[in-house]
Amino acid sequence: MSLQHFINQAMSAWMSQEGPNADIVLSSRIRLARNIEKYRFPTLSSNEEAKEILKLFEEKFTEESFDELGKFEFIKVDEMQPIEKRVLVEKHLISPHLAEDSPFAGCLLSANEEVSIMLNEEDHIRIQCLFPGLQLKESLKVANELDDWIEKEVDYAFDEKRGYLTSCPTNVGTGLRASVMMHLPALVLTRQMNKIIPAVNQLGLVVRGIYGEGSEALGNIFQISNQITLGKSEDDIVDDLLSVVQQLIGQERSAREALYKTSQIQLEDRVYRSYGVLANSRIIESKEASRCLSDVRLGIDLGILKDISRNILNELIILTQPGFLQQYSGGALRPNERDIRRATLIRERLKMEQDQNKRTEDDDL
C-alpha cells in the first residue's frame, strides 16, 4: 500500500479539512448521551439486553442515509481486530471504553466519519459529531437533528425535572459534552498553561489531553470541554465554552506574537531543528515526534516554514500513533519497530509534500 493511498483512506474530514480558526482549533466535538427507556443502563444491563439494543440499531439504521452525511455503516466491536479498534480510537471515532470494556458494543459510522453513534458504552447511545476547526454550533445542530432522527424509533429515558437520565450523574440533564481540540504551543512555551488550566476549571470547564480523560497533551494539543450538564441549556453550555475558547485563541495568538518579537532567532532555530529531526530521523518515539510536529506546525502558522500544509500536524499526530502504524505496516509491531516505522512514515510524508510543491512550481513555469 502506498503512503498516499493509506492517507486518503485513513483521513477523516476533521483531519483533512480546515475550519474556522484552524491555526489554533483543530476540531470541535459534540457528544450526546442517551439511554433507552425500559432497558437497564449498560453498567447493570444483561447480555441479552445489550444484544437487543445492537439488533435494534442494526435493523433500523444500517444503510440508512441522513442528509449529506450519507449512509451509516453498522460495526460490531467484538468482530474487529485489536489494531482496527485502536485505529478508530486514534481517529476519535470511538472511545477507549467502547473498544476495550464492552463485549456487546457497536457503532454506527457515517460515510464521511463526521458522525459516530456508539452503542452500549457507558450509556446505550452516544451521538458524536466531530467537525474541523471551531464549529461547535454547527456540530450541535447536526447532533440535535440526529437525536430527533433516532428518537423516532426509540423512547429515551427522560425525567421532566432532571432531563435525560444517564449512567454517570455528571451527564444527567442535557447529556451534552462539548469539546474543542486546540493547539496551544506558545502558551506552553511561555509557561502560561499552568495558570490557565486551574482558571478554566473554576469556570466549570476541564482541560484534558488529546484523547480526553486521563490522556497526555501530546504535541501541545489540549481538549477543553464542559463539566456541567444539569441546570443549563445546550445553547448555554456551548456559548460558555465558546467564550472561553475564544479567549484562549486570543491569548495563544498574543503569546505567539510576543515569542516571535522577542525571541525570533531562538524560535526559528527550534522550528528548523524540529523539522530536521522529523525529516532525517531513522527512529523516533511518539513523544519526541509529537513535540517536533508541534514545533513545525507553529513554524508553519508563523510563516517561518513555507510551502508545508498546515494539516500536516492533524495528519501525522494521528498517523504516527501505534494503531495506525501497525495498520499501515500490515501487522503487529514491537515498540522499537513502531519507532522505526514512525520515523519512516514521517520522512515519506514530508518528502511527499516537497515533491508536490516542486510539481506545482514546475507547472507555474
Describe what this molecule looks like in 3D.
One of its GO terms (cellular component) is extracellular space. Belongs to the ATP:guanido phosphotransferase family. One of its GO terms (molecular function) is ATP binding. It catalyses: L-arginyl-[protein] + ATP = N(omega)-phospho-L-arginyl-[protein] + ADP + H(+). Keywords: Allosteric enzyme, ATP-binding, Kinase, Nucleotide-binding, Transferase. By secondary structure, the chain is an alpha+beta fold. The longest helix is centred in the last third of the chain and has 30 residues, at 335-364. The protein has 14 helices and 10 strands. It has helices at residues 3-10, 13-16, 47-61, 82-90, 96-101, 136-151, 185-189, 193-201, 234-262, 264-280, 286-301, 312-319, 322-329, 335-364; strands at residues 25-34, 72-76, 106-110, 115-119, 125-132, 158-159, 163-164, 176-183, 205-208, 221-226. Helix 11 (286-301) runs antiparallel to helix 12 and helix 13 (322-329) crosses helix 14. The strands form 2 sheets. It has an 8-stranded antiparallel β-sheet with strand order 2-3-4-5-1-8-10-9. The mean pLDDT is 88. 49% of the residues lie in helices and 15% in strands. It is globular, with a radius of gyration of 21 Å.
